[in-house]
């Protein structure tokens, strides 16, 4: 599933309206206004999305204003921390927690009390700059995934060896300050990769590009990332190997060997994941995904976790049997993670769709709770207003747990009930 905003739109047409604070003001295909109201500056988050952010204290995406200093005291190694009930009263990086914000009430604390590792959300500087969003993350989340800022095209758009660290650094800094673990996302993916990678046509060059990129990014954040989506969406919907620069140039699956081995070398303590969508029901895609992970592991490729994105639809028949698919994923003998959960419906849902969404959130969360291999759940955003769904699926939305005004929706209780099931 595409995991970014507004890619489907067409060539930009500039108009003169001033965009509100936090409104979109640019990006590939954006046809709306490109100037911001007073006090806000249009900040390019990635080629697909620019947003009006407070002009105070902003940094551009092409300038590294903050030098990353690796903490030698703060880091526990989450991959060796047992998911025990004691986790409810601790945070993974207690020595760096300087935020206000109560601990002990949010979804993350509830799930830790039941032995799971985290409830998390995607985030990036654009959404973090909204204080309501940031406060919800402080209290409800134990884990963050960069929605866009660590994608290859965001980090190294122009050429090998030139990097834009600004947005990713900001997200990592927020996670460290607030004691959240991170999932890194993503390296080998057919979308949001720069043209200089797409245009590579020989195996030696592409091998070197993958190795160099992974070494640079994982090296920068070594010890700070719990798990990495080393490869993303490598299957077509029908279960065949997806056409991409990687599969074309290599002609087989060994681009995964290159990527996972490079990732292990770069940060031996990070969990290395294969992530995909539409693994939510029995299908040739699920079967082939599971078989691939087993095959990779059998030949020594270090795969530690599988990610099921779980972009779902309210009322979908696969949701009541969600545990069956998690069980299939667990046969890989890796950690299973729900990585991009949202459950979309009509943008203006009926009362029955709203109550079905409560049931659906409860069922998905409950399936994870009842599957010992399932470690944690990442929801793909906080507020419906920032969700990728409305711009990607016409007429749909209402997929997340907080509404457009950051009020908890009914499905929040469904999530809680799932944790307690
Ligand atoms: C699977 O889907 C891809 C992409 O649509 C297509 O190119 C390929 O031919 C399909 N394979 C089979 C066996 O149907």
TrEMBL record:
Report which reactions are catalysed by this protein. Answer: Endohydrolysis of (1->4)-beta-D-xylosidic linkages in xylans
Annotated CBM1 domain ranges read 17-53
**Matches recorded under InterPro entries:** CBD, CBD_sf, GH, GH10, GH10_dom
GO cellular component, alphabetical, reads: extracellular region
Q: What is its EC number?
A: 3.2.1.8
Q: Where is the composition biased (Low complexity)?
A: 63-100
Name the GO terms of the biological process aspect.
Answer: polysaccharide catabolic process
* Annotated GH10 domain residues: 122-418
Name the segments for region: Disordered.
63-103
Leader sequence residues: 1-17
Q: Which GO terms describe its molecular function?
A: cellulose binding; endo-1,4-beta-xylanase activity
Q: Which UniProt keywords apply?
A: Carbohydrate metabolism, Glycosidase, Hydrolase, Polysaccharide degradation, Signal
Q: Family, per the entry?
A: Belongs to the glycosyl hydrolase 10 (cellulase F) family.
Q: What is this protein called?
A: Beta-xylanase
Task: State the organism of origin.
Answer: Arthrobotrys conoides
């Amino acid at each position: 599933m595409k995991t970014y905003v507004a890619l489907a739109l067409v060539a930009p047409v500039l108009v003169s309206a001033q965009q509100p604070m936090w409104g979109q003001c640019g990006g590939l295909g954006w046809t709306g206004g490109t100037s911001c109201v007073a006090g806000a500056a249009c900040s390019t988050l990635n080629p697909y999305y620019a947003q009006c952010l407070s002009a105070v204290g902003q940094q551009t995406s092409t300038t590294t204003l903050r030098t990353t200093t690796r903490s030698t005291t703060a880091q526990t190694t989450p991959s060796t921390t047992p998911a025990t009930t004691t986790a409810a009263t601790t945070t993974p990086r207690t020595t760096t927690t300087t935020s206000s914000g109560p601990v002990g009430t949010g979804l993350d604390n509830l799930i830790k009390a039941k032995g799971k590792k985290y409830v998390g959300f995607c985030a990036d500087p654009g959404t973090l700059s909204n204080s309501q969003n940031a406060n919800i993350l402080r209290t409800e989340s134990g884990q963050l995934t960069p929605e866009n800022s660590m994608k290859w095209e965001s980090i190294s758009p122009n050429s090998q060896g030139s990097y834009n660290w600004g947005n990713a650094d900001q997200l990592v800094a927020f996670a460290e300050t607030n004691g959240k673990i991170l999932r890194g996302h993503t390296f080998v993916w057919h979308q949001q990769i720069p043209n200089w990678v797409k245009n590579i046509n020989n195996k030696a060059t592409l091998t070197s590009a993958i190795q160099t990129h992974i070494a640079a990014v994982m090296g920068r954040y070594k010890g700070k990332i719990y798990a990495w989506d080393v490869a993303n969406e490598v299957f077509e919907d029908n279960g065949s190997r997806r056409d991409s620069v990687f599969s074309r140039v290599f002609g087989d699956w060994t681009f995964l060997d290159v990527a996972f081995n490079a990732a292990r070398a770069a940060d031996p303590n990070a969990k290395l994941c294969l992530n995909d969508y539409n693994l939510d029901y029995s299908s040739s895609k699920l079967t082939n995904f599971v078989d691939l992970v087993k095959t990779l592991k059998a030949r020594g490729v270090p795969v530690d976790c599988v990610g099921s994105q779980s972009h779902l639809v309210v009322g979908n028949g696969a949701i009541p049997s969600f545990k069956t698919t998690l069980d299939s994923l667990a046969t890989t003998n890796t950690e299973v993670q729900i990585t991009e959960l949202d459950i979309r419906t009509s943008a203006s849902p009926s009362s029955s769709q709203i109550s079905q969404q409560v049931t659906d959130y409860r069922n998905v969360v409950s399936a994870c709770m009842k599957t010992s291999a399932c470690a944690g759940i990442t929801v793909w955003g906080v507020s419906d207003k920032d969700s990728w769904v409305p711009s990607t699926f016409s007429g749909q939305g209402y997929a997340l747990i907080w509404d457009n005004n950051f009020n908890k929706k009914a499905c929040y209780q469904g999530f809680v009930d799932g944790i307690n099931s």
